[in-house]
């Protein structure tokens, strides 16, 4: 079912949908049809930890509490083992051939059985650029915009604002640049564009997204498109030697 932003939330809280379960429809599904139980949560939190590439080393080098003010830990599980549980949503990242993949698992899926940790599902061949992208989402969730990647999909569909603009707010850009510099990671083409937008003050602020001002969000999103168009040559120069480059931005 599709609910309007100002409709009463179907959970029965009495709040408007936008102030309650908007962006957390998975939780509604859990509550309404009972498909997601503590038993299913245990299957995720019971997956064995993995240590691929530099992932664990990078996490252990961070004082997450000092950085974000939150003491939650980060556990790493295998993405194939996670996928076997059939708990992927359409908003999850797809593994890129040759580079591996990563998913920041929705906290609602693990909170009941392990409230002390957040979970990243990663592949054995994940590269550092993909990993710090997912880790930037974790730090942003803990000590930034508080936005869970993919949670803004209903808002994107309603407003026609690209999910990329809503998933990667200014605070995410800050963490992405911080991690890339700290661990000497060369960003891929897509993240180089996000970093470029961040450095030029063009990403939406988390407060603008969570505030729900559709006119302001659309205005900011249109500014992003205009800025990318006006600076397409410079952007192309920045990303043409980066992983994931698929052609000049001017021709898109």
Précis, in short:
The chain contains 13 helices and three strands, in the order ααααβαββαααααααα. It has 252 residues and is mainly alpha-helical.
List the helices and strands and how they pair.
Blueprint: H1 25-33, H2 38-45, H3 55-60, H4 64-68, E1 73-78, H5 79-83, E2 102-104, E3 117-122, H6 128-143, H7 153-159, H8 163-167, H9 170-182, H10 189-199, H11 206-211, H12 214-230, H13 232-239
Parallel strand pairs: 1-3
Antiparallel strand pairs: 2-3
Oligomer: single chain
| Class of secondary structure makeup | mainly alpha
Shape: globular
Characterize the main sheet. Answer: 3 strands, mixed
Number of helices: 13
- Give helix % range: 40-55%
Describe what you observe in this structure.
Strands 1-3-2 form a 3-stranded mixed beta sheet. Helix 9 packs across helix 10. The two termini are 35 Å apart. The protein has 252 residues and is mainly alpha-helical. The longest helix is centred in the last third of the chain and has 17 residues. Helices cover 46% and strands 6% of the residues. About 6% of the residues have low confidence.
Characteristic terms for this protein:
252 residues, mainly alpha, three-stranded mixed beta sheet, 13 helices, 46% helix
């Amino acid at each position: 079912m599709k609910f309007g932003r100002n409709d009463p939330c179907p959970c029965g809280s009495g709040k408007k949908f936008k102030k309650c379960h908007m962006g957390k429809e998975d939780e509604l599904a859990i509550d309404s049809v009972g498909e997601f139980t503590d038993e299913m949560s245990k299957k995720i939190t019971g997956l064995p930890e993995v240590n691929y590439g530099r992932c664990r080393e990078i996490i252990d080098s961070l004082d997450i509490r000092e950085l974000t003010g939150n003491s939650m830990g980060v556990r790493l599980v295998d993405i194939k083992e996670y996928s076997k549980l059939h708990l992927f949503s359409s908003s999850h990242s797809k593994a890129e051939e040759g580079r591996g993949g990563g998913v920041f698992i929705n906290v609602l899926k693990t909170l009941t059985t392990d409230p002390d940790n957040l979970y990243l599902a990663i592949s054995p061949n994940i590269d550092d650029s993909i990993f710090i992208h997912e880790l930037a989402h974790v730090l942003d969730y803990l000590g930034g915009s508080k936005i869970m990647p993919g949670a803004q999909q209903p808002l994107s569909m309603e407003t026609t604002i690209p999910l990329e603009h809503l998933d990667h707010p200014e605070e995410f850009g800050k963490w992405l640049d911080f991690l890339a510099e700290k661990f000497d990671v060369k960003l891929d083409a897509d993240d180089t564009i996000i970093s470029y937008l961040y450095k030029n003050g063009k990403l939406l602020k988390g407060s603008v997204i969570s505030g729900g001002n559709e006119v302001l969000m659309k205005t900011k999103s249109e500014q992003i498109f205009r800025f990318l168009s006006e600076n397409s040559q410079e952007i192309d120069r920045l990303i043409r030697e980066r992983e994931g480059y698929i052609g000049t931005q001017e021709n898109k």
